[in-house]
Amino acid sequence: MAGEDNHKAQRGDEHEESSPLLKENDSKICYKGDAKAASFVPPPAAEGYGWTADGLPVSHGSVIGEPISRNQWNSSLFACLGRNDEFCSSDLEVCLLGSVAPCVLYGSNAERLGSAPGTFSNHCLTYFGLYFVGNSLFGWNCLAPWFSYSSRSAIRRKFNLEGSFEAMNRSCGCCGGCIEDEMQREHLETTCDFVTHVLCHTCALCQEGRELRRKVLHPGFSPQSTVVVIPPGEQTMGRK
Fold first, then answer.
1. Taking the CA of residue 23 as centre, how many other CA atoms within 13 Å lie in the half-sphere pointing to its CB?
2. Cβ(237)–Cβ(133) below 8 Å
3. Looking at the whole model, is its pTM more than 0.70?
4. What is the pLDDT of residues 168-185, one digit of tens each?
5. How many angstroms separate the CA atoms of 203 and 158, rounded?
6. What are phi and psi of 74, to 5 degrees?
7. Are 107 and 120 a contacting pair, CB within 8 Å?
8. Distance between CA 79 and CA 75 in Å, rounded?
């Protein structure tokens, strides 16, 4: 009897396994799984992002696909006397330093750009050494621009300013085809910064000095809040 019961149980299991309903359900389950697998689309790979003056990752100019608008310099390269505004006296000082003592002007610009201890003396003395050697050996200041042009690139990146290459492309539109990505544009702008310092060195230093004085406080200036205490007014007591 026990053997017959076991035989019937095995036949029942085989009948359940061979049941068309189970096959249909299995096929539905597999079909649903295949549909899910087929409908799953892997996310697109992240596009290569470039970078801007202030370190923002961008693709095709901005995060929404629109070109980034660069800021303009406060004064042009050849505006030696600056602008007629509240910084006119500072612009005259910059023009005087650039003409007489460019090493002092460059040291001051570097100090405002990076206010680490000893920034002014390190940059000023190095510039003076290159200035002296260049004028002694070659008769003109041909060595200092190789050292000072990086400050122009740093200012342009820090304040997201329009570079010389981008300004030329905007005016004539003849150089936009050679720019493939943001990195290549930055290399071209850095080359233009170097050429500007070599050909118009004093004007470039003065333009950078005017820009920094309008946007960055001197590191030695520490504004302190002044508390003004106003005594209470005279009080009188009235009688009814």
1. 6
2. no
3. no
4. 888 887 766 677 788 888
5. 20
6. -65, -25
7. yes
8. 6
